[in-house]
Amino acid sequence: MPTKGWWWIALQICTSSYLVARGYLTWRWDSPIRGLVWKEKWWSPSVERGGGTRWSEFANQSDALITSGLTTTGILLIILGVAPWVVRLSRFTKLVWLMIPATLIVFVDGFARWVGKGYEFGMAIEHVLQIGTPILFLLACLRPEFSGRWIRVALILSAMTFLGHAFYAIGFHTVPLNFKMMTQGLLGLSEKGAINLLIVAGWLDIVAAVGVFFRVTQIPSLIYMIFWGGLTALARVASNFDRSADFFGLDPWLVETLVRTPHWLIPLLVLVLLKKKPSPNSFREGSRV
After folding, report:
1. Residue 51 located in a structural domain
2. What's the number of domains the chain is made of?
3. Does 289 map to a domain?
4. Residue 143 covered by a domain
5. Containing domain of residue 149, as a range?
6. Beta-carbon count within 10 A of 182 CB
7. C-alpha count within 13 angstroms, C-beta hemisphere, residue 169
């Protein structure tokens, strides 16, 4: 696995962009973690028994505290997003372990999204590539000689994310309104036309998610992931661009694009590793996933 050059810089960009973007969204635009804290069925018995307070009173009193906590969490993620740029310096190599608390924070964020979506399977796996990006960075730093292991983990995370997207696009779960609106707005399609296109894209996602595990289809599947992952990320900006809005509507939609950087950049990094000449100790193992 490359430990310098553009491959390494791309991995740094991927990890840093995701953490900083997720941190900014949490700080500036709230987080589903708030809904997790306000899960009445989970917490009201403890609140009412332990503090002798009714749930409604607790919810009102805790709002400011939760907001402060999420602001702090967002700023912390932004700070953690700087770590990938300094860990290669001899004095700061131990900072790579900051990827563990970063992963825990984004895992809680992803868990909150899953709970908020009613425990839908698609949401359970849709964000695993984003959540796993700091771990991929950690693995690359700690064991650069094991590119095969890194490739396997990256392929599994990528496949799960594309499957999660597919379950919504094909209608296994209710098709999200923003999926339909983005497709209609960008392509000028009717609602039925947008749904049909999403179904086709969803099945292509499934084919790619399966195809990355077979040598004959691995490269085409990764190329599809790079193309479609990048296109769907950019769609957030393109479909919400508004000259009359503050910052042309780029806040938060440019950040929503950046938070999806792993969707196309991780498959690209895998593709680069697979195209390199294999060696007995590393690349051959990864190319036989």
Report:
1. no
2. 1
3. no
4. yes
5. 6-35+62-83+91-276
6. 19
7. 22
CA-wise closest residue to 169 among 197, 141, 202:
202
| Cα 130 from Cα 262, distance rounded (Å) | 6
Return the number of other C-beta atoms located less than 10 Å from residue 69's C-beta.
15
Rounded to whole angstroms, the Cα distance separating 83 from 92 reads: 9
Has residue 2 got a pLDDT over 70?
no
Instruction: At 190, give phi and psi (nearest 5°).
Output: -75, 170
pLDDT of residue 241: 85
Model-level pTM? 0.90
Closest CA to 130 of 167, 168, 158: 158
- CA atoms of 43 and 66, how far apart (whole Å): 14
What is residue 3's predicted lDDT score, i.e. its pLDDT? 59
Tens of pLDDT, residue by residue over 47-87, are 777 666 777 787 777 888 999 999 999 999 999 999 999 98
Cβ-in-10-Å burial (0-12, 13-18, 19+) of 204 comes to: middle
CA 24, CA 38: separation in Å to the nearest integer?
22
Tokens of 21: 């973007």
pLDDT grade for 281, boundaries at 50, 70 and 90: very low
Instruction: Count Cβ atoms below 10 Å from residue 71 Cβ, excluding itself.
Output: 14
221/267 Cα distance (integer angstroms): 9
130's tokens: 């984003």
Spatial distance between the Cα atoms of 225 and 263, rounded to a whole number of angstroms:
7
DSSP secondary structure, 67-110, as one string: HHHHHHHHHHHHHHTTGGGTTTSGGGGGGGGGHHHHHHHHHHHH
Confidence of residue 278 (pLDDT cuts 50, 70, 90): low
More confident residue, 60 or 11: 11
Q: For the segment 79-119, what is each residue's pLDDT rounded down to a tens digit?
A: 999 999 998 776 778 899 999 999 999 999 999 999 999 99
